Amino acid sequence: MSTLTTLLGRGLQAAVGAVFAATAIAVLLTPRMPVNGYPRALALVTALMTTALVAITVWVARPHGPASPALRRRQTIIGLSTALLASIVAVIIAGSVTYRPTWDASVIRRASSTAHPAPYLQHYFGLYPNNIPVLGMARRVRAAGELVHVGYTSSFLVMNGLCLLVTLGSVYLSARWLVGHRAGMVALLVAFLLLGLSPWMIIGYTDIVTMALLTLAVCLLIAADRASIRARRVALALAACISLGASLVFKPMPIVVPIAVGIVVLVEVARRATFRRIGVALLTFAAGLGVCAASYVGLGAAARTAAGLDAHQVHQVTPATPLSFVAGGLLYGPGHPPSYGGYNGPLVERIRNKPVDETNRISWQVIEDQWHQRGLSGTARFEWDKQVWTWGDGTFWAYGEGEDRWQPVIAHTVLTPMVEPWDRVQGSLWDERSGLVTGLWCAVLLVLGVGLLFARYDRRTLALALSAIGIALLILVLQGRSRYVLTFVPIIVVLAGVVVGDFSRLSR
Question: What are the UniProt keywords, alphabetically (predicted)?
Fold first, then answer.
């Protein structure tokens, strides 16, 4: 049984690897251009050079023996200090090109400025109740800024900087614990290039906050798995479940992580099958889910209370239903290049203010129409196009929401003239920057994919791999775009580092 389940674990890892390797190759050779176009040759060269550098490092780098406690402490100080410095740099750069967003983030901004939101704002939160906790967070951020006479944009920028610090620190520690100090530093650098220098650092919304909470949860789970003292293991696991529950308050996507962990628990139980082990494993997992659910309910209620909308009539508006997001995920979006299953304005207008039954009826009709038009092969082709389109954007939909790409810079610092050319979508170097980060992102996916094809079975590797494929499947089923990948970028970077480390050990 142990050999069979180990083969099952390796098979699952290899299947995930095949999907991501094929995706990376398709993005480089036959891309479905995202909202931010880029020079294809530059992205291809960047990806190939980065992948070649990784391959050379695997063959040349010499393995180190176990580090002494003093060396481990120094490495921790170096890694976390680098994360702090990188976060400060990211905040300074983002602060030099701030602008006012035009989409949901703008609604949150306006609603947080008043205790009595206008009727159209109440209608918005009735239609999208998932953003009520976001409003609660935004009110707290605004209030904290007012205490020190700092505006909303700057306050959220500091908040995002703290979240980036948590993210980079968690990336470093996760990769270091699973592979080593050098892998941790490289993973930190890659995460900084993809996330710390991203225009998303400017935006006061859910993406950066959820990313930090999710990455911290994964880091704590890895720490719990390593802990040799039971009390420490339990405390770390509880903290991980609380952080995971908090991430679910702001976005539903992190739900794939407990599902991935549950699958790994089943594989591990099958490898060491005794009634006692099965019982302990299942009870432990159930307890973790309970803590996660309690965190989600408790923190969500606190955030909704902080939003201050209970006295208003937001609950009289019929919200969008899950089925409407499935229907939207099957439609082409307008424009050139087209979008695949992204936000669809005409569908939103069709279901606006409709009762739940009517919304679901319209959604089912859309789903049936698309199936009859495409058939099985056409639907599979559309979903593959959507996969390549979603994962083929190293900017993760930067400036793609609303009318953000046309918004002027409101910050005017000494760095603005130097940062604006490559960090603004109208900048003279934006296309090149987009090509470089997309090439780097494709290299991460390619290394991850090829590495998983040959990696030995490891429960932590499998959990990370299933989390990555989980978000990919969720985006395929629902309405989505590359922004929805942003939250999982740190996990994917860590996973790429893990399989590189595994390759390095196998090559000795």
Answer: Membrane, Transmembrane, Transmembrane helix
Q: 423: which strand partners?
A: none
Place of tokens 């976005």: 251
Q: Prior bond to 337 cis, omega within 30?
A: yes
DSSP 192: I
Tokens of 324: 């409407």
Burial (CB count within 10 angstroms: exposed 0-12, middle 13-18, buried 19+), residue 81: exposed
pLDDT in tens, 141-194: 999 999 998 999 999 999 999 999 999 999 999 999 999 898 999 999 999 999
Distance CA 124, CA 112 (A): 13
State the Cα–Cα distance between residues 165 and 173, nearest whole angstrom. Answer: 12
227 CB-contact burial (10 Å; exposed 0-12 / middle 13-18 / buried 19+): middle
500, 493 in Cβ contact below 8 A? Answer: no
pTM (predicted TM-score)? 0.93
Reported as a single tens digit per residue, the pLDDT across 18-41 is: 999 999 999 999 999 888 889 999
CB 135 within 8 A of CB 111: yes
DSSP state of 508: -
Are 204 and 138 in contact by the 8 Å Cβ rule? The answer is yes
Spell out the domain ranges in the chain: 2-506
DSSP string across 390-404: HHS-TT-STT-STTG
pLDDT digits (tens, 9 = 90+) for 109-150: 999 988 888 888 888 888 888 899 999 999 999 999 999 989
Among positive and negative, which fits the CA dihedral 499, 505, 506, 508?
A: positive
Q: Looking at this protein, which amino acid is placed at residue 375?
A: G
The DSSP letter of residue 448 is H
C-alpha–C-alpha distance, residues 111 and 123, integer Å: 12
Going by C-alpha positions, the residue among 155, 4, 46, 67 that lies closest to residue 445 is 46
Nearest-angstrom CA–CA distance, 339 and 304: 33
- pLDDT, tens digit, for every residue of 370-382? 999 999 999 999 9
Q: Cβ of 355: how many Cβ atoms within 10 Å?
A: 10
In residues, how long is the chain? 508
Give the residue from 362, 360, 382, 361 showing the smallest Cα distance to 371.
382
Enumerate residues 6+ apart whose C-beta is below 8 A from 489.
191, 194, 195, 211, 396
Q: CA-based diameter of the chain, in Å?
A: 66
In this structure, which amino acid lies at residue 150?
Answer: V
Cα-based distances in Å from 175 to 11, 169, 350, 435, 459: 23, 10, 47, 26, 15
Alpha helices in 192-229 (DSSP H): 207-226
| Four-residue CA torsion sign, 125, 126, 127, 132 | positive
Residue 146: how many CA atoms within 13 Å on its side-chain side?
A: 8
